[in-house]
Amino acid sequence: MIEGMLTGLSAALSWQGILYVMMGCLVGTFIGMLPGLGPITAIALMIPVTYSIDPSYGMILMAGVYYGAIFGGSTSSILINAPGVAGTVATSFDGYPLARKGQAGKALALAAYASFSGGTLAAVFLMVAAPLLAKVSLSFWSADYFALMVMGLTAIAAFSNRGQFLKAVMMTLLGIMLATVGIDPSSGAERFTFGSSDLLDGISFLLVAMSIFALSEALSGVLRPDGKKAPAPSSKMGDLRLSKEEIKDVAPVIGRSSILGFLIGILPGAGATIASFLAYATERNLARGEKKKQFGQGSLRGLAAPETANNAACTGSFVPLLTLGIPGSGTTAVMLGALIAYGLQPGPLLMHDNPDVFWAVIMSMYVGNVVLLFLNLPMIPYIAKTLALPKPLLTVLILFFSLIGVYLVSFNTFDLYLMVGFAVLSLILRQLNFPMAPLILGFILGGMLESNFRRAMMIADGSIAFLWERPLTLCITLVSLALLLVPLMDFLRGLKRPAPEAELSDNL
Amino acid sequence: MSVSKDRIGAFLFLVFSCAYGIYAWQIPLLPTEQGISVSASTLPKIYAVVGVVVSLLALAGSFLQQATRPQGSSGALALGRTALLLVLMVLYALMLDPLGFLLATEVFLLAGYLLMGEYRPKVLFWASVPVVVVFWLIMTRVLGIYLAPGTLWS
Lengths: 508, 154
Fold this sequence. Notes:
Number of strands of chain A: 2
Strand order of the largest sheet of chain A: 1-2
Oligomer: heterodimer
Largest sheet of chain A: 2 strands, antiparallel
Distance between the termini of chain B: 61 Å
Radius of gyration of chain A: 22 Å
Order of helices and strands of chain A: HHHHHHHHEEHHHHHHHHHHHHHH
Shape of chain B: flat
Low-confidence stretches of chain A: 499-508
Largest sheet of chain B: none
C-alpha cells in the first residue's frame, strides 16, 4: 500500500501532474462560475482532452475540474447570488449577504479555507476508507454487485427532490434503456439498431453526457433567458483576512461539516447538495442566541458549513467509484465512463491492478486543494470578470466544443446528428422538470447491471434466488427495497397534495 | 383545465416504453441462446414492463394530484433562436466532411454569433478566426490528431 501511495504521490507531484491539476482547477472554476453550467458539463467538456494523455493524469485533470467547478460555483453564489451548481446554493444563504456588506473578500477567503479544510480532511478519510472497502469488496460476487447497482440506482431516485421521485425513476430507466442499444456483448444479438451500422457499437457515453449536459445546458440558457441581467460582481473585494476569533469560531464547524459531508458523499445518490444543506441546517440548530440570529444575514458559520460539506462530499463520492466501481453521483458516473474508455476496470481490483491511477487520484486531491487555496483565491477578482463575458459568444463556443469533442473521438458525423437529437430530447425533458443526472447514471450502470445479472443468473442456474441466498446480498436487496418503497409510499400518501415543481433537480 | 407538466412527461414516457417494449419483443433469439435463462431480450423486456408500470403510476398520480399551473412559456424569439441553433448544428455536421474542419467551423461560429445577436465585425473576427486556427494547430500539431481537409478540395 505504501508503495502505491508513493507511486501516486510521485505522479501527482510530477510537473505534469501539478500542471494538469492546476489546469483542471482553473478551467473547472471558470466553468463552475457560469450560472447554469455544472461540474458534469465541466468534466464532460474535458474528456476529449484527456483521451490523449496518460490515464492517471487524465483522472487528475478531471478530479481538478470537479473541485474547481464546485469552488467556482461558490464564487458566483457569493458574488452575484447565482449558484452555478446546485451544491453551492446553501453557500449563497450567508455568502451573498456578506458580499453585500462589502466583505466579499472575507467571504471568498473563508469559502476557500473551508473548501480546503473539508477537501483535505475528507481526502485523509478517503485514504483510510478506500483501501479497507476495496479489500472487503474483493469478496463480492456478481450477485452482490448486481444488488449494489440496483441499490445505487434506487438511491439516486430516493434522494431526489420531493415530488421528483417517479421522474427520477423514469430518467434512470431511460438511461438503462439507452444503454441496451447496439450489439449485445454476451450473445452478439443486435438490439434497437434499426438496421443502422452506426448504432452497432451502441451509443457512446461521451455523446450522451455532452448532449444532455453541455449542449442542453447551453441551449437552455438561450431558451429561458434570465430576464433580468445578473448583477455585476462588486469590484470592491474588501479584506481577505480572517481574525483569530473568527477562525476560532468556525474551526469546530469545519471539523463537524467535514465528517458529515464525507459520510453523505459516500452514500450513493446523496451528493454535495444534500451534504451542504444538511450541514447548514445542523449548524443553525447547534448555534445559540446571537449566533443563530446571524444565519441568513451573513453568518461566517453559515458560510463555512455548506462550503466544507460540499467539498468533503465530492471527495467522499470517490469512495464507491474507486472501490466498487459504482458511481454515487452523476459527476462520478461521467468519470467512471472515462475510466472505462481508458480500458481500466474500476472496482476493487483497480487498487491492485492500477495502483498508479488509484493513488494518483487520491494524492492529487491534496494538490488540488492547495491549488484552489493558493492559486484560485488570489485570482478570484480576475476570474470574476469573466462573468461579464458576452453570453452569446460563450453559448456558441460551448456548442462548438461539445460537438467537436465528440467528433474528434469517433470522426463520424452521424454522432453529431445523434447529439442534436439528444439535445432536443433533453431540452424537452428539462422543460418538463425531469432531472438529468439519473439518466447518465442509468446509462453508465446499465451495461454493468446486465452483465452482472447474467453472470449471477448463470451461477445460480437460472434462479433469481441469488438475491436472498447470501446474507450480504439479502442485506443489499432489502436496503434497495426500502429505498424504493419509502418514497413510493410517500408519493402515494401525498397524492392529494399539490405537487411541488422543483427547480433545482440536478442535485449532483 | 391546464395539463400539468407531470402528465405530459408521464404520457411521453409511457409511449416511449411501449415502443421500446415492441422492439424488445422483436429481438431475435440466437441459436446459441436456446435454453438459457437470460437472453439478449430478457432485460429489455423487463425494463419495458417496469417503464410502463412506472409511467402509468406517474400518470395516475398526475390525475389525482391537483394540477399545478404550468410556468410561463419561453418567448417566441427564444424558441426560434434555439431552433435555429439546432438547425445550425445539423448544418455543421453536414458541412464538416465536404468543407473540412477549418472552413466549416468558421462558418458555424460566425453564423452562431450572428444568430445570438452579435453583429460587431471586430468581435465576430476575434472570436472566430483565432479560435479556429489555434484549435486546429493544437489538434494537428500538438496532439497529432489528423483532421482531413474537405472532400470538396481533395
